[in-house]
Structures are given as C-alpha cells and as structure tokens.
Amino acid sequence: MFTKEIYIARRNHLKSTLKSGILLFPGNGEMGMNCKDNWYPFRQDSTFLYYTGVNIPDVYFVIDVEKDEEILFGNNPTPEEIVWIGATTPLEELAAKAGIKKVKPLSELANYIKNGKQQAKVHYLPPYRSETTIQLSELLDVPVQEVAGAFSVALTKAIVAQREIKITEEVQEITKAVNITAEMHTYAIKNGNAGKTEKQIAGDLQAIAIGGGGNISFPIILTTNGQYLHNHATENLIKEGDLVLCDCGAETGMGYAGDMTRTFPASERFTTLQKEVYTIVLNAHNSAIDALKPGILFRDVHLLAATKLVEGLKGMGLMKGNVEEAVAKGAHTLFFQCGLGHMMGLDVHDMENLGEPYVGYTDTLKKSTEFGLKSLRLGKALKENFVITVEPGIYFNPFLIDAWKAQGKYTDFVNYEEVEKFKNFGGIRVEEDILITKEGSQILGNPLAKTVADIEELKNA
Amino acid sequence: MFTKEIYIARRNHLKSTLKSGILLFPGNGEMGMNCKDNWYPFRQDSTFLYYTGVNIPDVYFVIDVEKDEEILFGNNPTPEEIVWIGATTPLEELAAKAGIKKVKPLSELANYIKNGKQQAKVHYLPPYRSETTIQLSELLDVPVQEVAGAFSVALTKAIVAQREIKITEEVQEITKAVNITAEMHTYAIKNGNAGKTEKQIAGDLQAIAIGGGGNISFPIILTTNGQYLHNHATENLIKEGDLVLCDCGAETGMGYAGDMTRTFPASERFTTLQKEVYTIVLNAHNSAIDALKPGILFRDVHLLAATKLVEGLKGMGLMKGNVEEAVAKGAHTLFFQCGLGHMMGLDVHDMENLGEPYVGYTDTLKKSTEFGLKSLRLGKALKENFVITVEPGIYFNPFLIDAWKAQGKYTDFVNYEEVEKFKNFGGIRVEEDILITKEGSQILGNPLAKTVADIEELKNA
After folding, report:
1. Which parts of the sequence belong to the Aminopeptidase P N-terminal domain (chains A, B) (predicted)?
2. Which of A23, A64, B100, B393 has its CA 20 to 30 A from that of B191?
3. Tens digits of per-residue pLDDT, B365-391?
4. CA–CA separation, A299 vs A294, rounded Å?
5. Is B110 on the interface with A (CB under 8 A)?
6. Same domain, yes or no, for B159 and B176?
7. Cα–Cα distance between A338 and B268 in angstroms, integer?
C-alpha cells in the first residue's frame, strides 16, 4: 500500500537533497499511433509516478523547494468531456492521495514558470518524448534543440540516489509484477510448441499481463532466433527442434516491472547439445547470483559470469587457452555480446531515461567503450535494496562468427572450426529479478522452472 | 496481393493530380513509452504505407513530381546493429517491391530538401507526432509552432480523393481484418461473463489480434459502462445482469483495420428491458444499412438512424411528440450523442490525421457545430468502394440526463420521469464494416451474431 506518507517522505527527501530551485516534472500525454487521437496505451512518466502517484495524462508537477510549495497542474474534465468519458477522479482527490495540497489549472503553469525562473533555477530531467521537449522549449523559452542538453544533473543524481533504493512496498509491488511475469513464462513453456507462430504465443503472453491489471513492461521477445538479442516476435512458425527464447515482463497497474527470461525446447525435450549449452548458461547464472552482495561491483559479477561461460565453452571445445586471459581480452564477447543485467523498478531498465552514467556508473567508475562491456548497463557497486536482473547468455550469432573468423579475431581463444557447427544453434539466456539484501541477495517471486529437468517437466505436464 | 504495379499506379495517379512540387512523406519512428528505447509497437504512417508499402521505422519518401523522381531515404543497419537485430531486408529490396528505384541514405535528405525547395513547393500532410513536427521544422527551416499550419491542402485533398476509394485488394485485406475482429467478438460474447475483469477479456481479445499477425486497430472498448462512448477496459469486475459493450478491431500486418461493436449480456440472457432497447438499436442499424448507396449523403443516413431510434424510444415511452421534429431539433442526442459512422481503411478512422473537413465533408457541405452532428465524422455523399462503419447506439448517460433535465431541455420530446429509470442501464451499440457497392452496400466479413436470439445462442453454445 503506497500511502500518502510514502509520497510525502519521497518529496521531502528530494527537497532536502536539492535545497534550492524549482523542480519541474512533466507528466506524459497520450501518444497517437497513426493519428493524434488513436492512442497507444497511456504510460505515465516513472519519476512522475514516483513522486505523485498520479497516473493520468496531461498533468505537470512542480516543487518549489525554497517556498516549500508543491503544485499539481492539470484540468478536470469539462461537463462535455464527462459525457464522453464518464466521471473521473477529481485532480484534487488524486493529489490528496499523495499529500499534495495545491492543484491549479494547466493554463497557469506557463506564468508560474515564467515568474519562477526569474527567482530560481528550474530543474528538469532529460526529456525522452518530443512532445515534452516542445513543451519544455515553450515553458522555458529555450530553443527545441537546446532543451535536452540543459537538463539538471543535480536533479538527475538526486533522483537516481533515491529511486535506486527500493522500499518494502516497492519490493512487494515488483514481486507482484514478477509473479505475473512467471505466469507468462509458464504459459510460454507449456504452449510454445511447433506449428504456432511466435506472435501467437506473444499475444497470449500480453493477454496475461493485461489481465494482471497492467500491461507488458517492454516489447515481448519470443523468438526461435534468440541469438539476436533484440528480436521481437514475428510471423515465424515455430518448428520441432527449435529453441525458443522468451524474454518478457509484466508491469503492474502502478507501473512496477518484472523482467524474466527462459529458453526452452519447442519439442518435448532439449537435444543433448541444447542441454549442454543450457547448463553452461545456468551455471554462469547461478554463480553470478551467488556472488551478489552489497559492495561488490556489478561489473565484476558480469566478468565472473563471463568466466563461467568461457570455462563451459572451453569444456565443449568451442574455446581454448587461458580462461582469465580470454575474458580480460574480451574473447567471450563472441558468444556473450551484452551485459549481465540492469536495475529494475518503475522502469524495466530502471531510470534508463536518466542516463547510464548516473544510473549504472559513477563519477569515478565510467562505462567501458569496449565491445561487450559497453553494453553493460550497470557496473557500479551494489547496495542493499537495489533490485536488479541477472541474465547471462550464449548467443551463436552467425554474422559475428563469420566476421570475426574472417578478421582472425581471438584465434588464440576461439576454435572457429567447432564454432562453425553452431551457426544455426540459436541463443540461450536465463534471467531472474533479484533483490540485494544485507548479506547477499534474494530471487524475487514464486519459483519458476529453471533447470533442464524442471523445464522439461513443466513442458510436458 | 499488393503488387508493385499497385504502388506505382497509386503514385502515378497522385503525380497526375498534383502536377508539380516536391511531395515529402515522413515515415514514423519508434516511440518510447517510459524512456526513449522502450518502445510501443511500431506503427508506420498510413499514407506512407499506401504509397510505398515500406513498414519499417526511420525512413522518408520523396516524390519530385516535376523531375518524376522517387526516392526512399533511409539507412540499412550497420554491421554492429546486425549483431543485435539479425539481418533485415535491405532497403533496396523493400523499395523494389513497390517499384521505387532510388534509395539514398537518410543523411542526404536534408540537402535534398534544402536544394529542392529553392525550385519547387514542398508539400506535406498535417503531422500528428511531435517527433515529425520537429523533423519537418528542421528540414524546412520553419519554426516548430508553424509546421502544422503550413501543411499542403492540395496534397491532402488529392490523397483523400485517392485513399477513400478502395480497390479490390484493399477490400480483401480489410475483410481479413474484419474476420479477425469477428473472432475477437465471438470470444468476448462467449467469455465476457460475471466474475472476470474488463481487462481480462480485453487482454484476451488483443491476443487474438496479435496472433492474427497484426495488432489492435485502436484501444479496446470492453466495458459495462457502455453509456460512456470512449470507455476503455478497466479493472472493473463484470457482474451478473450487466450489459457488456465491446467495440474493438484488429489491424492486419499491412495496417488495414477492422472495427465492430456488439453489446451482450454478462448473464446467459438479455433482460426484457435490455432486449427491448437492443432491438431498437438493431432496427436503426439495419435501416441505416438498407439506405446506403452511392450518392446518398451519409449525414442523411445518420438522421434516418436517429429517426428510427426516436420511434423506438417513443414506443417505450421515453420520448414523445413528433418524431421528425424531435430529430430536427436534436432531442435524440440525449441518447445518441455521437455520429453514425466513419470511413475505414488503413486507419480505423480512415485518414483522421488529414482532417475531417477533407475526409468527411466538402467545400460546400461543412460539418455542423451542433451537439451530436458535430461528432459525425462523415457527412458527405457516399461513393462506390467507400468502406465505412455503421454504428448507431442508445446511451443512457446519467450526467447528461441530470444536466438536461435540470435545464428543462427538450421537455417537449423527452419523458424525463421515465428516462430517470434508465440511469443505470448502460449503453448499446451495434456496428458493422460496410463496402459501398454500385447499387447499395455489402457487409464485410463472415457473419457474426447480431440479433438477440443469435447472441444468446452464441453466448450459451
């Protein structure tokens, strides 16, 4: 239960960090698909939700830190609009639920900001929708092209420091999302069979997320081409023998996300080879989770997982040479091109719009620019009550294999002759959502089949 | 099958209408939900699809009418992007499928337009996404605030005249969408029972649309509050005795839409009263369809349906007085606040972004500003091969009833004392998708239960 005390405490904490200025939070509007009024599902800005809980379009929130004034700007529907949409909860009531005492019409926002910026700096976060960019340009009298660059680093850092630590109520809400996500996976494993299209399964998974009261937290990856990391469901028919990679998540009505991955056979059982690669990935996954605790650099956990993957691939004869050296030089990135995980919360990649330099790294720990590590969204030291994902994988990407073989890249560590045989194998990823605890970590949500044996049992149940 | 000849013919027709100028068609980009890269499902601009068939983000299409030059501007993925997304169909191949001979990198667009606009007028359609507005502002060196107002009326009119007439292949594709839509309704009628939430059913309907290869063509209306015209599915529990109004549609992978409405009981049977009102709506629906033919003003068909509704409501004792006079004065709008239907095609409200003055009306037939008629999207004379919806309804809106009763509005025609009893009744709408033929009209798609008897039979099958 997100009481008004929670929202008040969040805002008080932010005010005590910033100490001065006017904090301007644009809410999101409706977003047209093929015309202005045929809308995508409404998604409120996550930071807006975090400080206000107000989950409706076309509202702005302002905190004047010095005056200690908090105002929700927005319009209640006109009598004519009520004819079309029925009665809605009055803004005053929504504001009161979050302990916000003032509500003003949206038409007063421009003057409020115009006057306010004479007296104090106006802070805002990096905008990610063009609509918001145009609005900020008009409100602040800044050219459209300069809006993005003029966001407040101080506000961004303060909010990251606050949002990255999850309170009990947030963990409960994320757990709810994870449990719906696990239902989606249970369905996918049982029903992701030969003869169906990827989209048929993906549609059914979305139905489970919507039925759970929210929506999907990101576009569903349900694919027999798991070797491509961002491959969304297509009209491809699933065939016997295919490996199906399902990476999906639900978000709750409040906007908290789940994000899990399972890889399973379209047929009743994994092949021996599929089982072998799967076991390597699962071993890396478990080793990474075992290493999680406050204080450890997530970059180091990522490299530990990479080490486990290389050990396994070496055991299969796909890699060779010294394991630590292979990882240090990045040879594992032929198979594991991306990062081990990311923060999770009100966004599936939590606070992605605030920027990885602030969310995943620090002033002293900067993100690497090397292939592989440059895709690691989170590198910094973990803290108690972070919620993160752990999602190692092995991806046999035929384009990359061909390119690097032709370039003679990593020939000290890669047996290309063996790797060639896996160009049609696909990809495997295993992902859980995890809370960092005082001593270590805790996987969130109800257990979902993860070993080869458990997945095969669920598949054939 | 949409051959390249179809696309070539469409463009040639447009060129022969415009005769001069540079026609600039911005494709849509990906659209972030809660950050830039967590995307809503991609939806290409419909006019872009109409002339190019190219269904990918971040492309522009230009027709230089005088030079008779057609260019698709866009970028093939870089080798690194291929690592993440796999191989995609090259732009050159996509262009060739539509008979477009030139492809250039997106980076060349700005200079092309800069040079081109020295020599000829650049025509573009009204933009509906802020992203496009900003792009057009930069390309054409026009302030963001002035972009929308400077769209080309000549191009808009030419495209409306072309897109409103559906060719055989389009009717087939719309029929495919309608058939998937009918499957959604069949499911809703059978499963829209007490004890489920509106969102649970809506999620399942979306799964059917996605499984059909495309997506929903507009946000699903699945509600026990059908009296509010734009009421989307909520967490409301459906109860015994409720009327459930379902207004939903699938769009095919190509982007053609379906859009149907059925209203059905949550319980096994309609109540006597529900049956009575339903029959009035269905009678108006059938009478309107019977009147459809080339040449007739759709506004007149709308008023005919209104007349049938008033006759029925008078029979029930809810209205009184002279029927024609009641309709002429707008008394029916207490129960039927909106329009009878709209154009349908690549958009569910076809060409909505091009503007109702062009799509639904003419230079001589302007839209009324009166309550009711001002919500009629289509008023002009029908032509052979229009595809339209017919969707009359009766909506007992408690806010409107209270307001008009208090104002003493239409007391010559409304028995408020009787109407008061219906303030918790809800709303009923029945909608089909219809092709205007040479002699009359044809309902598209496989038949779907529509009479009281057929709906009850399907519900209990």
Report:
1. 2-133
2. B393
3. 999 999 999 999 999 999 999 999 999
4. 13
5. no
6. no
7. 54
Q: State the ipTM, two decimals.
A: 0.95
* A203 touching chain B per CB within 8 A: yes
pLDDT at A86: 85
Give bridge partners of residue A255 from the DSSP assignment. none
Which of B171, B168, B233 minimizes the C-alpha distance to B433?
B171
Say yes or no: A44 and A175 in one domain: no
Last residue of a domain, one of A163, A179, A209: A163
Do A175 and A158 sit in the same domain of this protein?
A: no
Separation CA A422–CA A409 (nearest Å): 18
Q: For the purposes of burial, counting CB atoms within 10 Å of the CB of B5, is it exposed (0-12), middle (13-18) or buried (19 or more)? A: exposed
Which structure tokens are listed for A355?
A: 């920027």
Q: Does residue B230 have a pLDDT over 80?
A: no
**Which of B35, B200, B248 is the best substitution to test chain A (most A C-beta atoms within 10 A)?**
B35
User: Taking CA atoms, what residue in B is nearest to A88?
Assistant: B231
Lateral strand order in the sheet of B432-436: B387-390, B432-436, B441-443
Of B2, B114, B106, nearest in space to B56 by CA: B106
pLDDT digits (tens, 9 = 90+) for A268-285: 999 999 999 999 999 999
Question: How many helices and strands (H and E) does chain A possess?
Answer: 17, 15
Give DSSP secondary structure letters for B149-168. Answer: GG--HHHHHHHHHHHTS--H
Q: Are residues A31 and A149 in the same domain?
A: yes
| Gap between the Cα atoms of A348 and A357, Å rounded | 17
Residue A130 touches chain B, beta carbons under 8 Å:
yes
Same domain, A411 and A337: yes
**The last residue of a domain, from among A163, A180, A199:** A163
User: Same structural domain for residues A221 and A265?
Assistant: yes
- Interacting residues of B397 by C-beta distance below 8 A, sequence separation 6+: A83, B227, B228, B337, B427
Residue B223 near chain A (CB below 8 Å): no
Q: Domain check: are A280 and A250 in the same one?
A: yes
Q: Is A142 on the interface with B (CB under 8 A)?
A: no
A22 to chain B nearest CA, in Å? 23
Q: Name the closest residue on chain B to residue A347, using Cα atoms.
A: B34
| Residue B134 lies in domain | 4-163
Which pLDDT belongs to residue B331? 98
Least Cα distance to B187 among B175, B203, B166 occurs for B203
Element (H, E) at B290: helix B272-291
Considering only residues 279 to 308 of chain B, which have any Cβ-Cβ distance to chain A shorter than 8 Å? none
Query: Residue A353 maps to which CATH number?
Result: 3.90.230.10
The CA-atom distances, in angstroms, between B421 and each of B245, B278, B337, B397, B416 are: 20, 17, 19, 12, 9
**DSSP string over B159-197:** HHHHHTS--HHHHHHHHHHHHHHHHHHHHHHHH--TTSB
Domain tally for chain A? Answer: 2
Q: How far apart are CA A37 and CA A20, in angstroms?
A: 39
Co-location of B303 and B440 in the same domain:
yes
Look-up of token digits 């440059």: A374
Asked whether the beta carbons of residue A33 and residue B46 sit closer than 8 angstroms, the reply is no
